[in-house]
Structures are given as structure tokens and as C-alpha cells.
Fold:
Amino acid sequence: MLDVFTLATLESAATGAKPARLAVLGCPVSHSASPQLHQPALDADGIPATYIRLEVLPGELALAFAKMRELGFIGCNVTVPHKFEAMDCCDEISDQAKILGAVNTVVFGESGSRGYNTDGPGIRQAIQEAFGMELGKTHTLILGAGGGAGQAIATQCALEKPAVLTLVNRSLEKITALARRLESISPETEIHVLSFDDPQLRERCHSARLLIQTTSIGLKKSDPPVISDDCFLPDHCAYDTIYQPVETPFLASAKRAGCRTDNGLSLLIHQGAIAYQHWFPGSDPLPHMRAAMR
Ligand code: ATR
Structure:
């Protein structure tokens, strides 16, 4: 099997004893860990199918869906940059995906394709598991709330209706618009919006209990910390959506301050397990996925 398929080579993957029946669609997609996550669960469940990476160019998602359906695919995951385009390419969209404004999981059913978003419920479960915290009962501060991941997490927080939610982003326009949408989801939540250079950032961090880092800062070893050390308090819980490297400068600062920390591997696993259960209702892929990613 190739590491990455394209629409031109897809048909060759869909035959044989273990034909491709699931895929992650992205551009680029070679870095995606989704096959490592899903294949062990498929194998453990005795499902004779392969999960592949499929590189699809922006604008070609509808074509990719049509081709996959024709070849007998069960469904797919959708990653950057296709999560928004996927909204227009599904026949039906779950209420949750509509509210979150993005689709990351698709089921090809008899009546058409149905889009879901498992990032929102995935972060809820990851935070619950890592820190025993409920998003609805916690003041969460999201760093990079204007990005794709940050917006999904902020929206999930609003759905859980916390008393206070703080959104931080480099550019304010994105989170000002986001805050207006979140206000309509949860009018009772007090939403604070600020940029990284706001003099109140440290104080806002101190008043939160959970800090979630969703920017791309930290992906490179040479990246600086996204916020300064004095923003952390020992009773903070700090979560970084990045899982490679395992410890970003954000998590290293949090640890030095005595905070409890976790990285995005738990989000990857939980969103994946929920996606798998959309394809195979009643299944329990979590133990296999955890073992595979350990
Ligand atoms: P996405 O496709 O999810 O939007 P992205 O462009 O990597 O991905 O941006 C993710 C988040 O990281 C955004 O909140 C982005 O801030 P902007 O909305 O202002 O662009 C943030 N981000 C990326 N690089 C950053 C940097 N050097 N400083 C601060 N924030 C940064």
C-alpha cells in the first residue's frame, strides 16, 4: 500500500483482501496519524478493511466523496483544509457539526453522506479524562481561539454554557465575530476577548482554571512560549492541542509552575474513537486506539 493515495490512484487501493474502505482526506495529508489510530481498531474488530491517507486538492472534495461512494467506502475523516468545504459536500449535516461550523467525519450511508464533528465532543472527553473537569463548570481560556481548532473548542465550551469563557487570539477580528456567535449559543456566558499583547492577559489567565493552547506555536522546537511563565498559577490545568512534540514550551512552562498538564494525543484519540463509532455503531475502539498510540 502507498503511504498517500490521490484520486488518480484511489481505485487501486479499493480491491484485494483488505480493500481501502476508510480514509483521511487532507492537503497535505502525509503527516496524519489517523491510519495508526484506526487500523488497529479495524483489525481488532475483524473488519477486513484498510484505512488510508487520501490527498485531495481544495475544490475537489465533492468529487472525492462521489468516487469513494462508487468504490464502496464506509466513510472518511476530513482534515485541514477541507473541514469547511465538507459542510457543502454532505447530503446531511448533524446539528452539532452545524453549530461547530465544520465537518471532520463523514458516513456514506444508503440515503447519502452524513457529516459529523467529533472534535467538540472529543475535547470534552479529553479534558474530563485528563483533569476530571467539565467544560460547563470551568472558566476556560483558549489561546488561538480564532483558528480552526480554537473555534471548535470555543464553540464546544459555549455549548456547555460555562459562567465565563475567555478567548485570546493574535488578530482580534476573528474572535470578536466568534464571540458574537457564541453569545447566541450561550447568552448567560460572560465572554472576554483579548489579543496576546493585551496588558490584561496575565490577569485573565490567573482568573481562569483551564488554559487550552490551540495555536500552531510549539510545533517547531525553536518556537517561543505562547504566553510568559508568569501567566501560570499552580492550580491551573494546561492543555496543548499539539501532541508532536510531546512537550511544547507552553506545557514546559505550565509544568515548571506546578500545573497539571496534558497534550493533544488524548484529543486525537477521543475524536477518532467517536468517529469510528459513527461508522460502526456499538463498537468500543478506545482500548485499541490507546494501545496503538501509546
Ligand atoms: P487554522 O487553519 O486552524 O486557522 P493556523 O493558521 O495555523 O490554522 O492558525 C491557528 C491559530 O494559531 C490562529 O489562532 C492563529 O492566529 P490568527 O488567527 O491571528 O492568525 C494562531 N497563530 C499562528 N501563528 C501565530 C503566531 N505567530 N502568533 C500568534 N498566533 C498565531
Remarks:
- The first strand starts at residue 20 and ends at 26.
- The chain has a mean pLDDT of 96.
